[in-house]
Amino acid sequence: MRRHLLLLRLFFGTSLSAELEYRSNFAVSMLSSALNLGASVFTVRLFFEHGTTLGGWSWPAAVIVLGAFTVLSGVSQSLLQPNLNRLVEQVREGTLDFVLLKPVDTQFWLSTRRFSPWGLPDLLLGTALIAWGAVEAQAPIFGYFALLGSMLCSSAILYSLWFAMATTTIWFVQIYNVTEVLRSLLDAGRFPIDAFPRGAYRFVFTFVIPVAFMTSVPAQVLTGQVNPIQAVGALVLAPCLLIASRAFFRFALRYYTSASS
Amino acid sequence: MSFLGKQRALLVTAFAHTTTYRAEMVLWALSGSLPIILMGVWSEAARDATLGYSPLEMVRYFVAVLVIRQLTFVWVIWEFEESLVRGRLSHDLLRPIDPVWQYLANHVAERIVRFPIVVGLVFLCFALYPGAAYFPGWAVLGQAALLIAGSFITRFSLQYTLATTCFFNERASSLESLSFIAYAFLSGMLAPLDLYPELVQRLAGWTPFPYLIFTPARLLIGQQVDVVGALQVMAAWTFGLVLLQRWLWRKGLARYSAMGA
Fold this sequence. Notes:
The structure holds two protein chains of two kinds.
Chain A: H1 2-19, H2 24-49, H3 59-93, H4 96-101, H5 106-112, H6 120-136, H7 141-167, H8 179-186, H9 200-208, H10 211-223, H11 228-253
Chain B: H1 3-20, H2 22-30, H3 34-45, H4 55-71, H5 76-85, H6 89-94, H7 99-128, H8 138-164, H9 166-169, H10 173-186, H11 198-205, H12 209-212, H13 214-220, H14 227-255
């Protein structure tokens, strides 16, 4: 455990000093995050301006959903994209061999080696959105703690999906990143799940790509309007997916034919 | 070799190159699923509010957006940035033809290979909403093809002009991410533009963006559109962008110093 913490500190430090060579990028990154968020808020507001209520959700609750989405997109920019997306490249070029040889858990190394500060603007702005929505919706104090737990579950679900998706590259060697497909489908998380039509849409976004558990449930947990089955569902789903994605990766590794063998 | 002969050779090689990766083309196409997500939310919203669009019209609108997006997708800035940073541009400059034709040929070839997938996606949408299936008529399809071609050329010129700034700042793709936000927001990709507040609509009118998606989409769902006017506006923007690009290109080449240049 101590060794892992030490490694984490080293990984963090080296990635940060590498990325800070492009400091001027931070301003552009902050600006594009802010504009992006402005456009998203505007789009959601458009529904309310025209008298629809995204499946019965209030304006502050819809803003919290958007905030949760933005926080998760910050997490994926800071951790998931820089790390897991490289798996595709490592399998293609055979450099995964070097990782497998290291005296440390492969999944740990693959998932934490890099950290990119460019997700921080999204993390900050997303948190601000959630805070605004929570005050506006007069969320109970208890809700904030529940939200924290709920967002941890969301991040775990996101990580597991991303990791499993990246793992498929061991069978299907590619140039293009499969995780881009996942990322584009996750865009559904900008809207409360009830805003989607019943049937195929809600089924897919609850059970296939569970964005409902990732952004709608945290918002409901915070405002205390959660359906207990959904909250428990998210709590169960997160560890299950973590275990399943790990098992899937180990299974896939058996089929990995390295560069030399 | 004549100019047309060169073009033919470029297109044939680009086509061969693209078909090598045809399986990945499905992933590329799937990663543009945002219109399908928005289609669900907006058609649901159109059921309980008067938006000026019926739910089925909303579905058709976003199917049109999906087709337009797929056929006008442009990535030249990443291709150019990489070839500049890695110094491959030096080889391209040795050829007896401007590198832009190579990029253009790549894009056109990709469109041809992608077309069957786009048709498949359209059928998928109409399978989700059988009531929305319709045939716009050959005359409309012909005019739409013209508008979409114009939209692609304008997008390409805009992105290639931004790409040329790579000579001066090396990370031009962050400029593209800013310009993409404006494009997404003002083109009608996120919602039909006539639902926007008056002020924003007027602002959008000063940019080329509404002509790139909103105009052809409206034509495809059967509304009256000034096709010739839209083509003229796009031609004017393209002309201005090409002039700017040529000027930047000349300035940039003078600064360019890579291996062997």
